[in-house]
Automatic annotation (TrEMBL):
Residues 56-350 form the Exostosin GT47 domain. This is Exostosin GT47 domain-containing protein. It comes from Triticum aestivum (Wheat). It is found in: Golgi apparatus membrane. InterPro entries: Exostosin, Exostosin_GT47.
Length: 423
């Protein structure tokens, strides 16, 4: 807004709300010297946020040829830094975890360490046509080497699938739906970043996890907790993905374009497609952080918003959120339907200051932040523990998990012809 420009009546009302919220939050901020205690979160979901999975399950880790994991990482260590890196860090965590068993006969779960998103293009994106071939080859290997896959056809196995559309292995929804979940994984439990109700790529019983965001990098950008939250609504990212969606209508189902077109000139919306060096600091100065869908329903900014105490504004219809049985997302977020984006300003303005304060207090809990982060080394209650807790809550295995001798359920020849090619 230029100097001397009088805000419109709606903008003035929103400014008043923003000022009120900011004042409340500054007043509620703890002194810098105050130590946060690791306390249990109130609310139905939060009752299991700090569960300890040790003693509740045992996991056997298959010893795989290095071509399925280590060689891929050695060839391109960019895999350690992208949003799909959970598949690598989960492997490292389990190798040293107290839930690991060296005796497969006593295992509750079997884990195949295969880095399907670590085969990257020159631009740093996973090669979608290679991922299903890598996974299929890995399953062929464990089925031929050990007896455990064959007795259940994967019903007591879990796989990491941190791809845009999970085990459909593609970043474009139409292509992902066409491919469908890799047929050999349809009895297994998928631990995946993708989560959307009633979607072809969402398998029943999947465990939805947050995308990877570097904990150390975020820690290095923390500012004083007493800093005023002077930004009402904040967003940095693409509004149009012209490289993959030239007509500009399919990306994010048009939700991001709608955010931009409706609020690019609104003084309360601090938005840009640029990614400034102060990005993390800016999130800590914001009351609301917009978290619209992109190609998939999620992005790392959801994790960043939680870590920085910025109320996530989730714009993604039918989203299944990470660890939804442990994290009380309804209590810490604002949900906006994609069709309601043109009313986003009035929706946020209608959030009562006391509700803003309540959400901020929940977000300030160390346990809440811990649960969305894959720490190295691991910490109690972090995302690794939440994955294990999710697996433990699925025990004992359902009736019919173990097949009769000679019984077959899965068709090894099902799927796209391109996915059946050897890797």
């Amino acid at each position: 807004m230029g100097a001397g420009t009088r805000p419109s009546a709606p903008a003035a009302a929103l400014l008043a709300v923003a000022a009120c919220c900011a004042a409340l939050l500054v007043a509620a901020a703890p002194p810098q010297h105050q130590q946060h205690k690791h306390v249990r979160i109130s609310g139905n979901a939060g009752d299991v946020l700090e569960d300890d999975p040790v003693g509740k399950l045992k996991v056997f880790i298959y010893e795989m040829p290095r071509k399925y994991n280590h060689y891929l990482l050695e060839k391109d260590n960019r895999c350690l830094y992208h949003m799909f890196a959970a598949e690598i860090f989960m492997h490292q965590f389990l190798l040293a975890s107290a839930v690991r068993t060296m005796n497969p006969e006593e295992a509750d779960w079997f884990y195949t360490p295969v880095y399907v998103t670590c085969d990257l293009t020159q631009q740093g994106f996973p090669l979608p046509f290679r991922a299903p071939r890598i996974m299929r080859s890995a399953i062929q290997y464990i089925a031929a080497t050990w007896p455990y896959w064959n007795r259940t056809e994967g019903a007591d196995h879990f796989f990491l699938a941190p791809h845009d559309f999970g085990a459909c292995f593609h970043y474009q929804e139409e292509r992902a739906i066409e491919r469908g979940i890799l047929p050999l994984l349809r009895r297994a439990t998928l631990v995946q970043t993708f989560g959307q109700r009633n979607h072809v790529c969402m398998q029943e019983g999947s465990i939805t996890i947050p995308p990877y965001a570097n904990p150390q990098k975020m820690q290095a950008h923390l500012i004083s907790p007493g800093t005023p939250r002077s930004i009402f609504a904040y967003f940095r990212g693409l509004f149009y993905d012209m490289g993959n969606d030239p007509e500009g209508g399919y990306y994010a189902r048009g939700a991001r374009a709608s955010v931009w077109e409706n609020f690019k000139d609104n003084p309360l919306f601090d938005m840009s497609s640029e990614h400034p060096s102060t990005y993390y600091e800016d999130m800590q100065r914001a009351i609301f952080c917009l978290c619209p869908l992109g190609w998939a329903p999620w992005s790392p900014r959801l994790v960043e918003a939680v870590v920085f105490g910025c109320i996530p504004v989730i714009i993604a219809d039918d989203i299944v959120l990470p660890f939804a049985d442990a994290i009380p997302w309804e209590q810490i977020s604002v949900f906006v339907a994609e069709a309601d984006v043109p009313r986003l300003d009035s929706i946020l303005a209608s959030v009562a200051p006391e509700d803003v304060l309540r959400k901020q207090r929940l977000l300030a809990s160390p346990a809440m932040k811990q649960a969305v982060l894959f720490h190295q080394p691991a910490r109690p209650g972090d995302a690794f523990d939440q994955v294990l807790n999710g697996l433990a809550r699925k025990l004992p295995h359902r009736e019919g998990a173990f097949l009769k001798p000679g019984e077959k359920v899965l068709d090894w020849n099902a799927g796209l012809d391109s996915d059946l090619k050897p890797w």
